[in-house]
């Protein structure tokens, strides 16, 4: 990731947390859209960002997996003290947020 060395233990932990344990050596080409989405989240978190920007992080996921990822985002935010900025149409995901801004008719409210 970004040419930096990878913390293997952290990578394995994140893959497990997004439900992809055991797929570390698998080619991205063989992953489904939802698996790719979860892999992308794990890769982003691997870098230990101070702020994480997510665009529809549950958009390609079934309800159960979406709930798992929403819980993971809340846990990571609390554990690692990162800020999350999430763009979503998922009402359940936005209900977890501390603050919700709505874009309607070109106006941010």
Q: What can you tell me about this protein's structure?
A:
This protein has 109 residues and is α+β, with helices and mostly antiparallel strands. The protein has 4 helices and 4 strands. A two-stranded parallel ribbon has the order 1-2. It has a two-stranded antiparallel ribbon with strand order 3-4. α1 (8-17) crosses α2. The chain starts with 7 loop residues before the first helix and ends with a strand.
Major pleated sheet: 2 strands, parallel
Structural class: alpha+beta
First-last Cα distance: 36 Å
Question: What percentage of amino acids are in beta strands?
Answer: 5-15%
Shape: globular
Question: What gyration radius follows from the Cα positions, in whole Å?
Answer: 15 Å
What is the element layout, followed by pairings?
Elements: H1 8-17, H2 33-46, E1 51-55, H3 63-80, E2 83-87, H4 91-95, E3 103-104, E4 107-108
Parallel strand pairs: 1-2
Antiparallel strand pairs: 3-4
Helix pairs in contact: 1-2
Keywords, separated by commas or semicolons:
single chain, 109 residues, alpha+beta, two-stranded parallel sheet, two-stranded antiparallel sheet, 4 helices, 4 strands, 43% helix, globular
In short:
The chain has helices spanning 8-17, 33-46, 63-80, 91-95; strands at residues 51-55, 83-87, 103-104, 107-108.
């Amino acid at each position: 990731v970004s040419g930096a060395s990878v913390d293997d233990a952290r990578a394995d932990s994140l893959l497990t947390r997004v439900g992809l344990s055991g797929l570390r050596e698998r080619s991205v080409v063989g992953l489904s859209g939802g698996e790719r989405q979860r892999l992308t989240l794990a890769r982003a978190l691997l870098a230990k960002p101070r702020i994480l920007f997510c665009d529809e992080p549950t958009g390609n996921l079934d309800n159960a997996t979406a709930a798992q990822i929403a819980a993971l985002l809340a846990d990571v935010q609390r554990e690692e003290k990162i800020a999350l900025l999430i763009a979503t149409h998922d009402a359940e995901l936005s209900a977890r947020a501390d603050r919700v801004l709505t874009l309607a008719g070109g106006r941010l409210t």
